Amino acid sequence: MTLTPAPRSNVSDHVFAQVRDAILSGAYLPDASLPSERELAATFEVNRHAVREALRRLQQLGLVKVSQGGATRVLDWRLHAGLDLAMSTAISAGDALPVGTLVRDMMEMRACIGADSARLCALRGTAAAKEQIAARVDDLAAAAPDLDRMGEANVALWRAVVTGSGNTAYLLAFNSLVSGALAVGHVPPRLRTAELLDVAGHRLLSDHIAGGAGDLAEAQARALLTASLPAPLSARTGSSAARKDSSTTRS
């Protein structure tokens, strides 16, 4: 991967993004040493302060380990990086991090968090929290058929569910999933149409939560949050086989 001099503005961002992408693409392997600050400054034609700031950000993401007065070593992002790495990666970073699947991956993560949050909210949510969920379903219905407005209402509804679960870790993860360049909240509504338009399904979810039916709330939440996801290959294959068997039986 060829590194290029930085533009006059945002020089630290430029250094950060190029070194990040070089690491994720495998140009710098885990345990390898990055060039020294002096060498990086010369390559990018920037001062060492900009390089130092970029390295600090890379270290915060779990991509490098900066040793005081020593070499900067590359870390394996699969072992050390967190969700912040996905949030910071708005363009393709090579095969090492399949950015093309990040929206799908985060929607799958949101489905897992949302389903368990619905279960917990049903079991231990306060009456006020459950009333908030019902009110957010009304907002979703009122926003129809405007998919953009429904998308905003949908995020607010699920925030109420996650908040009502009382799980702070889920709430922090949800905040990450609906912010940033690749956020679920910013996914084009057409990719979530099946979920957004199912107002009746959201009312059923609200009813299950209000009634304290944890298992039913979990199942309904998962059904809603996976409605727009492509079926796994095995599931599609199984469905095709089932249709073929049915066709054979009828003939």
TrEMBL record:
Key words, A-Z: DNA-binding, Transcription, Transcription regulation
Record organism: Dactylosporangium aurantiacum
Pfam families given in the database record: FCD, GntR
Domain HTH gntR-type: 9-77
This protein's name: FadR family transcriptional regulator
PANTHER family associated with the record: TRANSCRIPTIONAL REGULATOR, GNTR FAMILY, UXU OPERON TRANSCRIPTIONAL REGULATOR
GO MF term (any one): DNA binding
Secretion signal, residue range per the UniProt entry: none
SUPFAM superfamilies: GntR ligand-binding domain-like, Winged helix' DNA-binding domain
InterPro entries: GntR_C (IPR011711), TF_FadR/GntR_C (IPR008920), Tscrpt_reg_HTH_GntR (IPR000524), WH-like_DNA-bd_sf (IPR036388), WH_DNA-bd_sf (IPR036390)
PROSITE patterns tied to this protein: HTH_GNTR
